[in-house]
Amino acid sequence: MKLFPISALAGAVIFSLPNSLSAQEANSEIADTFSEEAEQIVILGSRRPGRSVVESNVPIDLIGEDTLQAGGFTDISRQLQNVVPSFNYYQPSLVDGTEHIKPASLRGLAPDQTLVLLNGRRFHSSAILNLNGTAGRGSVSVDLNAIPSAAIKRVEILRDGAAAQYGSDAIAGVINIITKDDSEGGAISVSGGSYYTTVDGVPELVGVQVDDTGAVVGNGSSRVAGVYGDDISRNDGENYTISGNWGLQLSSDGYVNISAEYAHANRTSRGGYDDGDTYPKNEDGSFDLREIDADRDRFYYGLPETESYTLLGSAGYVFNNGIEAYSTVTFQDKDSLSGAFYREASDEALLIQEIYPDGFTPRILAEIKDYSVLAGIKGSADIWDYNASVVTGKNTVDYTTSNTANATYLLDTPTRFYGGELASTQTTLSFDASRYIDLDSLYSPISFAMGIEYRQDAFQITAGDEEAYTNRQMTDESGNPIFDESGNPVYPTNSLFAQGAIYFSDAAEVDEDRHAYAFYVDVDSDITEAWNIALAGRFEDYSDFGTTLNGKIATRYTFNDGFALRGSISSGFRAPSLQQQFYTSISTNFVDGVAYEVGTIASTSAAAVALGGEQLDAEESTNYSIGFTWTVTDKLNITADAYRIEIDDRIVLSETLGDSDDEAVIVQQVFADNNIEGVGAVRFFMNGVNSVTEGVDVVANYTAGTVLNGDLSLSLGANYNNTDVSDVVATAGPSDLFEPDQLFARRERERLENAAPEVKANLTANWRGDALSLMFRTNYYGEVTQPGTTQEGDVTVDAAFIVDVEAGYLFTDNLEGKVGVNNLLDKYPESAVITDQPNPGQFDYIIPFPNFSPYGFQGRYAYAKVTYSF
Prior knowledge:
This protein is mostly beta strands. 10% of the residues lie in helices and 46% in strands. It is a multi-pass membrane protein. It is found in: Cell outer membrane.
């Protein structure tokens, strides 16, 4: 469906009509109407000034500072997770880059199908491409946590397709973060907390079994027989945050508002103990006696250790001619340290026991830097209001892996490797203009807006240390390289490259960019006193995949002062990210003794094209929404909205083609026919599937009034959401050598369909007296399935209630203290460790909880916070 021509025609007609009412005059006339709801006025959903949440013809959540700050978390992602039912934020572990910038999403869609704005302007994405087996696999997300929570005035969430209004990515909706603009006062907060938890279903290894002779008893060929006790208790993840916000007067007509935050968090450990052998076995096959005292808490499964410095400054100044200049600057420097899989000293292939006699766990350090600069002017010129701005943002991630080795270098190996850098940059220039037109035939003036936009995206991969991605060939006594009978190089071990490292080779280096132009029109009018209709249309032209036209119709009919119906239909799109188009990560594997380059490659590379790869096109969507707003009484308001989102040509990552014997023969023959040498198993992005997402959002707010000498308010939110892959549309290879199910197999399909719980809801009660305040919140997470390659390998996360409580006390007018507990009942997903079985799997102990758990697997968290306001 393409609605653009309708709205474009309407815009052209209105633009040509004689003007009788300027935007400023119209704003003056309607000012009284909205004065009582001033705090509810939002920017999203319509470019008509003065539109409130209650009056919107599309569903919008408005989340204020107090609501966000309630609870122990200081990062915006987890704050939103607790208060917005359709918002999901997973916290996986042992997933490489995704562990450092975790994906967040709306309505169960991919993270990059939600547009993020900062003060109404597009915010840049992160450089990381999520490649591991988590929700959001194959997507690029925005790092919301690059914005300090102390700077946020409110968050607006538009839960409706809005690509026709705001451009690419706005398929699931739009998140607009509004920062503080106070010109005086401020606050300083110090908070800290720790996890106090019993890891449910994961027993503590209290010893290793030995027989009467003192020999270590085995439990399988490479595992010792452990002696287990009660479930593990942990007190870890100690963290503290120091944040401040200051408002300063800039002359008499401006302001400067600055927020700063320092945060440090120790890692958490939620895995069990590793009962695999640590040391090489004795000649008679018995275990080395050092197994008795070996450290078996050696997997880093939990939250990473982090340290971050985050700044945000905003400023505005109104000149004598009425023109306002404004700016917002953000900066974050963050280090995040996680672990890879433990490498046993018993692994003879490593041949480096002299360096790591007890084995080693590689440590992956991600050094993340993120900044953005927004500057603009706005004002009025005759009959038009205008707003012009430029914003540029960049996210870089540098990887360094320590406590590791490249075994092919034997004892000459470095133990620390620089893996390279990912960088993503975005620059957007925007110009918006709006006016009002008064027509006698309509109940209210027509709000007409139009604008143009230019955007440039860039993506780079820079290679790391050569020793990380190359292997040193064996040589003879004269120093000459050794080859086997087939002429292939011989290495001293089958363990290749830097162990557990994230690295990029020189063959993976990328430096790509693109640009896009856009033009939009937006029309909003009350046709009668009861009926409002809004039209929007957008044309975009991308330098890589071409043009797209999209439109939207939204309407609202008010039956009485308390009840209104609303609905919308829109078409949308999402442009393929440069990461999806060009990300390359190549390593060498051996297939039948022959070295091949294997990994993720660009869909337009020669190897991918030979298998059916091509230039990615935009995803196309059609959104339908219908709902109502009902002000039952002055104290109770209810909204409910049903939606259907159809997405065609979704961009997904293919299965690895050529990693099985049968496929390897096909792939190598295709490459031989096309004179492509040295490339083996590959995977690449494709416009591979169509999907349908359906759901319902319900929000209710109740102000109970005075209860026990204090004010009590209640809020309830619920989301039902279901996504189905309606069709796998891609094929690959000459004459379709690979069937669709080979390109996008069961597990990938299930991951896409199970990216969010089918039902999520929250209930929050806030009570405030003269000095004492209390908060009770419970979130309900419905069942989620983490898929395996077969149905037998699926892991189900049962439905759960997560309870948070908080108490605050106002010691003086300026000083408030709070204490609280998140996940009060210490709820975990069901552990994979089945203790009544004689031989649970080794990794059932080490990685006992699924990464798909929508509420994580960290357990009970207690905290305290002190805030001084001035």
